[in-house]
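Tokens for chain A. Residues wanted.
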């Protein structure tokens, strides 16, 4: 047990619990020889037998930097490794203290170096340490047994396993070689594929440029097509309009359009002007003259259209002063187709002759037309200044003199009707004729 004694000159402390130590009497006999023997290498002291436990160094749990603890109130004396407390009476024998202390301290140094456990230790700490070391020893022994067993198992199977491993190795090496060949093959294929890919990328780039160019051309052409389509539609519209106009014009009879022959009660009319007189409807001579002027103009135009001439007669359209010239051996006689209203007796003769001559001209025209087209005929026959209703077989004189106004008016209406039919014939012939 460590117990500080007042009579002790030098006191060491336990390096674990710091309790002051009372050294055993045997320490008084420590000398240099003993120290040298103890300081011999531990390796030489190790047991050679496997059965004996191995001495394993205990890992140091103490911090080396911590100063070893002292017991007060003694004087501190520094040695190489130790701090020791020294009582006052030590001074009385300095030489003896020094020699004994050094030997003891050296002994502890040697023990510390060899066992890697800090010395000195008190008895309790030593017991605790021994217990701890025994536990570690048993653990280590158990591990050693395990290792030994494993080692023996391994050595038993060594021959067989080495053969197997060699076979495996050869197999793996063959496989490695095969895989390396495959790898080379794959790498060359990869290089070929990359090369092909590069070529394809170049192709792709070129095709994309082509596509852009063609798309631009396509858009240009499409724009042109749209413009052309618009133009085509426009032209078609114009054509349709022109065709419609042409159809309209083809259906339009220029004579009908220019000379509208119709009727107004008992009167025949041309362009709205009445031709004739009735006792209860006294038509002004001026209107009758204008109507006659239109009639002469129409007759003359129809003759020109058919390139037909009226023999000794020549129509002269001159508004409300139109007339007919009759060429004979005696000379040219001028027969008026207008009435001034005055000088009735003398004047009426020439007016009547003019109207008879006009009817003669119409009759000639009728013959010409019927000659050209057998299927065509005018509804009323005309002869010697009279016009005949084919249904009633009744003839009406076109002369104003010695005639009733009713019959004269009727004769004029029939005459206009014949003229209307002549217009229809000319229109039909002009449509059938190649333009
Ligand atoms: Zn202790």
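Reply:
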């Amino acid at each position: 047990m460590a117990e500080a004694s007042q009579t002790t000159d030098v006191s060491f402390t336990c390096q674990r619990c710091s309790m002051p130590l009372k050294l055993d009497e045997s320490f008084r006999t420590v000398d240099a020889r003993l120290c040298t023997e103890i300081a011999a290498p531990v390796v030489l002291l190790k047991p050679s037998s496997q059965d004996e436990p191995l001495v394993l160094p205990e890992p140091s749990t103490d911090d080396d930097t911590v100063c070893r603890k002292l017991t007060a109130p003694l004087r501190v004396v520094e040695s190489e490794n130790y701090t020791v407390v020294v009582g006052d009476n030590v001074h009385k024998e300095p030489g003896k203290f020094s020699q004994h202390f050094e030997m003891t301290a050296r002994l502890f140094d040697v023990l510390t170096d060899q066992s890697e456990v800090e010395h000195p230790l008190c008895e309790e700490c030593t017991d605790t340490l021994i217990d701890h070391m025994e536990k570690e020893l048993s653990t280590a022994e158990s591990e050693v047994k395990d290792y030994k067993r494993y080692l023996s198992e391994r050595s038993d199977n060594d021959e067989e396993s080495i053969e197997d491993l060699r076979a495996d190795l050869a197999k793996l090496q063959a496989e490695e070689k095969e895989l390396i060949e495959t790898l080379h093959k794959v790498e060359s294929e990869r290089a070929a594929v990359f090369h092909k890919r590069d070529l394809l990328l170049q192709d792709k780039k070129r095709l994309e440029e082509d596509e852009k160019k063609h798309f631009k051309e396509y858009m240009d052409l499409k724009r042109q097509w749209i413009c052309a389509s618009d133009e085509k539609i426009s032209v078609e519209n114009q054509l349709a309009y022109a065709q419609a106009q042409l159809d309209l014009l083809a259906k339009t009879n220029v004579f009908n359009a220019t000379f509208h022959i119709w009727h107004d009660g008992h009167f025949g009319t041309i362009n709205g002007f009445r031709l004739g007189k009735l006792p209860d409807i006294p038509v002004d001579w001026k209107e009758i003259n204008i109507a006659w002027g239109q009639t002469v103009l129409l007759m003359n135009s129809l003759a020109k259209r058919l390139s037909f001439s009226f023999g000794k007669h020549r129509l002269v359209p001159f508004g409300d002063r139109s007339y007919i010239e009759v060429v004979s051996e005696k000379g040219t006689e001028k027969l008026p187709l207008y009435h001034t209203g005055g000088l009735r007796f003398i004047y009426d003769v020439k007016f009547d002759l003019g109207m008879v001559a006009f009817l003669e001209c119409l009759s000639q025209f009728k013959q010409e037309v019927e000659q050209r087209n057998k299927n065509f005929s005018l509804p009323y026959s005309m002869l010697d200044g009279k016009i005949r209703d084919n249904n009633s077989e009744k003839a009406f004189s076109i002369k104003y003199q010695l005639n009733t106004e009713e019959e004269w008016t009727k004769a004029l209406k029939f005459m206009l009707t014949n003229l209307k039919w002549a217009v229809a014939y000319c229109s039909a012939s002009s449509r059938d004729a190649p333009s």
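Residues 67 and 83 are 8 Å apart (CA to CA). Residues 1-8, 43-80, 87-93 have pLDDT under 50 and may be disordered.
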